[in-house]
Design goal:
The complex is a heterodimer. Chain A is of the alpha+beta class. Chain A contains five helices and five strands; from the N terminus they run E-E-H-E-E-E-H-H-H-H. Chain B has three domains: 8-218, Aldehyde Oxidoreductase, domain 4, CATH 3.30.365.10; 226-297 and 356-431, Aldehyde oxidase/xanthine dehydrogenase, molybdopterin binding domain (Aldehyde Oxidoreductase, domain 4, 2-Layer Sandwich), CATH 3.30.365; 304-347 and 443-725, Aldehyde oxidase/xanthine dehydrogenase, molybdopterin binding domain (Aldehyde Oxidoreductase, domain 4, 2-Layer Sandwich). The chains are: A alpha+beta, B alpha+beta.
Chain lengths: 159, 728
C-alpha cells in the first residue's frame, strides 16, 4: 500500500507496509541518513525527529501513523529559529565528538527550546534524558542548550 | 596496547624518534609532495631500518597553495582530525583551516601506526604520540624548502626571509609570495639535513583551543558514517547469529519471512541467518518472522559464574611474572599487618551508538567494502581471505565511526558481512540490530585478581603482591607482542607503578574463557588494573588508618609529576572538607598512556543503595597539550564512559547466552545522571601523553573509593551492586 508523508516540507509517496517504522522510510527509502538508528526501541533517542514540532522517536513510529503531520528531520532543522540557535550553540561549545547521536540530541534540544525559551536544568533533564551519548557529551550539550536560549533571546528569535 | 612499553621515549633512547625519513618529489598536478617515513614497530622490536624507505604519510602542497595531509588515523570522536593537522600547520606556518585531510587508503606497509605494532590502526591513545615529532619535522622541512625556493627566486639569503600564513616574506624589500607559487620550485631542491623545530614558547597553535574541523557536518546530518553509505541497487540486510557462541544453524522455516513485503532473500550461513530486503524495516520484520532452530553446541550451559570460578582456581597457581622487584615473600613474612583481597571485573560490551554494520559488494572477480574501521587494512584483508580474491582485487573505503571504544579494532563484522554478500547479487548493507550488537560483541575480558600486601609498623606497604588471570587480547590480535606468557596490554596499569613499593610482584595467567570472545575496550589493560590497584591502595590506607591522599603522597616522593596531579585534584575537590551524611569523596591516581592523572569523585548513596556521582574533579598532566579543548572533552567523555561501567556495566552469560540485549538491560549513563566534571590541566613542555582513554580507568576506583568513604563498604566486584549498599 502506498503511503504519502510530508517530510521537510515535501510530500513523498512510499510503497512500504504501514507498520514500517518511520526511521527506515527516512533512511532507506528517502535517503535522509542524518536521522540515526541506535536501538530500535525508543531507548536511546538517536532517531529523534519532529512531528508537527514535537520530538518523537522515529524507530517506533509506524509510518501509517504519521498521517498529515509534518515530519522534520535534522536535514531541515535549520529552517527553524530554535534549530539554528541549537546548531550554532553546538558549534560554539564544541559539543560533538563521534557525532553519531548528535542529530537526535539536536532534534530533542530544538523541540525543547521551541516550546520553552528559558529551560532550567530540570527542564533540560526531562527533555534530554532519553538521548544517550556514549562519548559523554552531556555536560557540553546542557551548556549549549542554555547558550542557545541566550542566542534566541539576543536575536529575538524565540521558537 | 603496545603503547606503554613502546612509548616514544623508548624510541628516543634508540635514537630513532628524532630521525625522520623524508623524500620530496613533484606532486601530481604540480607542487611539492613530501613523503614521510615513520619508524615501525613489531611487538616491542623496532623494525629494521630499510635502506629503501617507503614513505607512509604524505604532505602535499599544491600549486594552488592547498596543504593536504594523507593521514593514517581515523576520526571516531577523539578529535584526531583536528589535533594532527595542528602539528603540521604549526611548523609550516599556515592557518589550521588551510590543512585538508585525506584518509589513507588501506596499506599496512605504508600507514602502520608505529606505536601499534605496525598495524594500521587507531587506538590506545597513540595517535598524537606517534606523530608528534615526525609531523612537526615534516612541516618544518617543507617550510625551509619553500623559503629556500623564494630566496633563490629573489636572489637573497634564505636567512633574510621568513614564513607566515602560507607565504614567504622578504622583510627588507617587503616582497611576499604564496606557497602555491613556490611549491613546484621547492620540489626541485634537496631536502635540508637538519631543521630546527620551534621551541614550545614559540608555538602559536599548539596549546591553544582549536575548533573541531569535523563538527559542522555532525550538527546538520551530512556527516557520513559507515551505516549511511548509499549505493545504486543497495539492499539492506539484518541478521541473527547463533545465540550461543560456537553454536550452528540447524534449520529455518522462512515461509512467513519471505511473505513480508520488501524481503528479497534469506541467506543461511553455518552459524547465522540474514534477511536481505529493500529496507531495514522489512529486513527486521522478516527476521522476526523466521522460525530458527539452533544447535547450541559445546557452550550451551556456560555461565559467567563458571568462568569466574575457573579464574579463581587459576589464580591459586603462580602466573607468568610480569614484574618482580625485591623479595615479596620474605617482606610479607616480616610484615606487621597483612591485607588480602580478591577483586573481579565483569565482561563489558562497547555499545557504541552506531550499531555494527558493513556494506559489501562481491562481484565475480572483485570485492568492495564500505565500513568505519579502526583497522581498515585488516578489513580489506579479511574480505580478500573470505572471498578468496587476491588482495589487489579488494577495495576498502573507510568512514567516520559512530563510536569506536575498541570495537572497531576487530573485523568480525566485516568478515560476516562479506560471507552474506557472497550470496547476494549487488551491494548489501548488513546492519546489526542493537540486540545483535550487544549479544555478539567482543567483550572487555572478565578478570579476577588476588591482592596481598604487607605493611610495616607505620602502616606503609613493604610488600605488594598482585596475581591475576583472564583473557589476553594481544595474544590473538598481535601474537608477536605476547611473550613468555606476558601481554603488555593486559598488565598495563599493574606494573611500573609510580608508587615507591620496595617489594612488588605482579603475575599474570592467560586464561581464555570458553564461549565468549574478548577484545580491547576503552582504556584497555588499565580499565581493569587501575580499578584493582587504586582500590587496594585505598584499602591499605584504611588499614593504616591514614588519609587516602596523604597515604599515596607518601609513596610518591620520587615522582613529582604524580604528586602534582594528586595534590591539584585533592585541593580543587576540597578534599577534607566535610560532606553531608551518605556522601563521600574518593580518590584515584594513575600513570598510564604516558599521562599522569588524578581524579576525585563525590558520590551520594541513597538509603536503597542507589549511587549518584555528583561531582568529579580531574587533574591531568599529559605533557605538551596540543588542543586543550580536546583534552577537556576527552576527560569529560571518558569519565562518563567509566561511570557507566562502574555503576551499571556488565555482560553476563546464562545457558551460554548473553543476558543483556539493549539499553534497558545494558544501562549507560544519561544526561540527568551525569556528574559535574572539572578538568584541571597541568601545563608543561614534556612529551605528549595519550588522552583518549585515561579518564575512563581513573574514575572507576575513584567512585568505589568514594562509596567506601560514604558507607564503609568496600566494593571489590564491579559493577556497583546497590543491594550491598542498602542501609536503614
Amino acid at each position: 500500500m502506498a503511503i504519502t508523508i510530508k517530510v521537510n516540507g515535501a510530500a513523498h509517496r512510499v510503497d512500504v507496509d504501514g507498520d514500517t517504522p518511520l526511521l527506515w522510510v527516512l533512511r532507506d527509502v528517502l535517503g535522509l541518513t542524518g536521522t540515526k538508528f541506535g536501538c530500535g526501541m525508543a531507548l536511546c533517542g538517536a532517531c529523534t525527529v519532529h512531528l508537527n514540532g514535537a520530538a518523537i522517536r522515529s524507530c517506533v513510529m509506524p509510518v501509517e501513523g504519521v498521517g498529515d503531520a509534518e515530519v522534520t528531520t535534522i536535514e531541515a532543522i535549520d529552517a527553524t529559529a530554535a534549530g539554528r540557535n541549537i546548531q550554532r550553540a553546538w558549534l560554539d561549545l564544541e559539543v560533538v565528538q563521534c557525532g553519531y547521536c548528535q542529530s537526535g540530541q539536536i532534534m530533542s534540544a530544538s523541540a525543547l527550546l521551541a516550546g520553552n525559551p528559558h529551560p532550567n536544568d530540570s527542564d533540560i533533564d526531562a527533555a534530554m534524558s532519553g538521548n544517550i551519548c556514549r562519548c559523554g557529551t552531556y555536560i557540553r550539550a546542557r551548556e549549549a542548550i542554555k547558550h542557545a536560549a541566550k542566542l534566541s533571546a539576543a536575536t529575538g528569535q524565540e521558537g | 596496547m603496545l603503547f606503554d612499553r613502546l612509548r616514544p621515549n623508548a624510541a628516543a633512547e634508540n635514537g630513532l624518534s628524532r630521525r625522520v625519513f623524508l623524500k620530496s618529489s613533484v606532486a601530481a598536478g604540480g607542487g611539492l609532495l613530501l613523503g614521510l617515513g615513520l619508524p615501525t614497530f613489531v611487538g616491542d622490536v623496532i623494525a629494521e631500518e630499510s635502506s629503501s624507505f617507503v614513505p607512509n604519510a604524505f604532505i602535499r602542497i599544491g600549486s594552488d597553495g592547498s596543504v593536504t595531509l594523507t593521514m593514517p588515523y581515523v576520526e571516531m570522536g577523539q578529535g584526531t582530525y583536528t589535533s594532527i593537522p595542528m602539528l603540521i600547520a604549526e611548523e609550516l606556518e599556515v592557518a589550521l583551516s588551510q590543512v585538508r585531510l585525506e584518509h589513507a587508503p588501506p596499506d599496512e606497509k605504508r600507514y602502520g601506526n608505529p606505536l601499534f605494532g605496525g598495524v594500521q590502526g587507531t587506538g590506545g591513545s597513540t595517535a598524537i604520540r606517534a606523530v608528534w615529532e615526525p609531523l612537526r619535522q615534516a612541516g618544518a622541512t617543507a617550510r625551509v624548502m619553500l623559503i629556500a625556493a623564494a630566496a633563490k627566486r629573489w636572489k637573497v639569503e634564505p636567512s633574510s626571509c621568513h614564513a607566515e600564513r602560507g607565504e614567504v616574506v622578504h622583510k627588507t624589500s617587503a616582497r611576499r609570495i604564496g606557497y602555491g607559487a613556490l611549491a613546484g620550485d621547492a620540489a626541485q631542491l634537496p631536502i635540508p639535513e637538519k631543521v630546527a623545530l620551534k621551541r614550545p614558547e614559540e608555538f602559536k597553535l599548539i596549546g591553544t583551543p582549536a575548533r573541531r574541523l569535523d563538527a559542522p557536518s555532525k550538527v546538520n546530518g551530512t556527516a557520513i558514517y559507515g551505516i549511511d553509505v548509499k549505493l545504486p541497487r543497495l539492499k539492506i540486510a539484518t541478521l541473527a547469529q547463533s545465540p550461543v557462541f560456537g553454536g550452528r544453524l540447524k534449520s529455518i522455516d522462512d515461509a512467513a519471512a519471505k511473505a513480508v513485503k520488501g524481503v528479497r532473500q534469506i541467506v543461511q550461513l553455518d552459524d547465522a541467518v540474514a534477511v536481505v530486503a529493500d529496507h531495514m524495516g522489512a529486513a527486521k520484520k522478516g527476521l522476526a518472522a523466521l522460525v530458527i532452530q539452533w544447535d547450541d553446541g559445546p557452550h550451551a550451559t556456560l555461565s559467567t559464574e563458571a568462568i569466574a570460578r575457573d579464574l579463581e582456581k587459576g589464580t591459586l597457581k603462580p602466573g607468568a611474572v610480569a614484574q618482580n622487584v625485591g623479595d615479596v615473600a620474605s617482606a610479607i613474612r616480616r610484615a606487621a599487618t597483612k591485607v588480602d583481597a580478591i577483586y573481579q571485573v565483569p565482561f563489558l560490551a562497547h555499545a557504541a551508538m552506531e550499531p555494527m554494520n558493513c556494506t559489501v559488494e562481491v562481484r565475480k572477480d572483485s570485492c568492495e567494502v564500505w565500513v568505519g574501521s579502526q583497522v581498515i587494512a585488516r578489513a580489506r584483508a579479511t574480505a580478500a581471505e573470505t572471498t578468496g580474491l587476491p588482495l589487489d582485487k579488494v577495495v576498502a573505503h573507510n568512514h567516520l565511526i559512530g563510536g569506536g571504544f575498541g570495537r572497531r579494532l576487530e573485523i568480525d563484522g566485516v568478515t560476516r558481512a562479506v560471507q552474506i554478500a557472497m550470496h547476494v547479487d549487488g551491494p548489501v548493507k548488513v546492519v546489526w540490530s542493537r540486540e545483535e550488537d550487544i549479544q555478539h560483541d567482543m567483550y572487555r575480558p572478565y578478570f579476577l585478581d588476588r591482592m596481598s600486601a604487607g605493611l610495616d609498623e607505620a602502616g606503609m606497604p613493604i610488600a605488594w603482591n598482585h596475581r591475576f588471570a583472564g583473557s589476553s587480547i594481544l595474544a590473538r590480535w598481535a601474537p608477536p607482542a605476547f611473550n613468555n606468557g606476558v601481554d603488555p596490554d593486559t598488565i598495563d596499569g599493574a606494573i611500573n607503578l609510580a608508587y615507591a613499593l620496595p617489594n612488588l610482584r605482579v603475575e599474570y595467567s592467560r586464561m581464555e574463557p570458553p564461549g565468549i570472545p574478548t577484545t580491547f575496550w576503552r582504556s584497555v589493560g588499565p580499565s581493569h588494573n587501575v580499578f584493582v590497584v587504586e582500590s587496594f591502595m585505598d584499602e591499605l590506607a584504611a588499614a593504616a588508618k591514614k588519609d587516602p591522599v596523604d597515604y599515596r603522597l607518601a609513596l610518591l616522593d620520587k615522582a613529582p609529576r604524580a604528586r602534582a596531579v594528586l595534590q591539584l585534584a585533592a585541593e580543587r575537590a576540597g578534599w577534607g572538607h566535610p560532606l553531608p551524611e551518605g556522601s563521600g569523596r574518593g580518590v584515584a591516581f594513575q600513570f598510564v598512556f604516558g599521562t599522569y592523572m588524578a581524579q576525585v569523585a563525590e558520590v551520594e548513596v541513597s538509603k536503597d543503595g542507589e549511587v549518584r556521582v555528583r561531582r568529579v574533579v580531574c587533574a591531568v598532566d599529559c605533557g605538551t597539550v596540543v588542543n586543550p579543548d580536546t583534552v577537556q572533552a576527552q576527560v569529560q567523555g571518558a569519565v562518563i564512559f567509566g561511570v557507566s561501567a562502574a555503576l551499571f556495566g556488565q555482560v553476563t552469560l546464562k545457558g551460554g547466552r548473553v543476558e543483556q540485549t539493549n539499553f534497558d538491560t545494558y544501562r549507560v549513563l544519561r544526561m540527568n545522571e551525569a556528574p559535574a566534571i572539572e578538568v584541571h590541566i597541568v601545563k608543561n613542555t614534556e612529551f605528549p601523553g595519550g588522552m583518549g582513554e585515561p579518564g575512563t580507568s581513573a574514575i572507576v576506583p575513584a567512585v568505589t573509593n568514594a562509596i567506601f568513604a560514604a558507607t564503609g563498604k568496600r566494593l571489590r566486584t564491579l559493577p556497583v551492586d546497590p543491594a550491598r549498599l542498602k542501609h536503614a
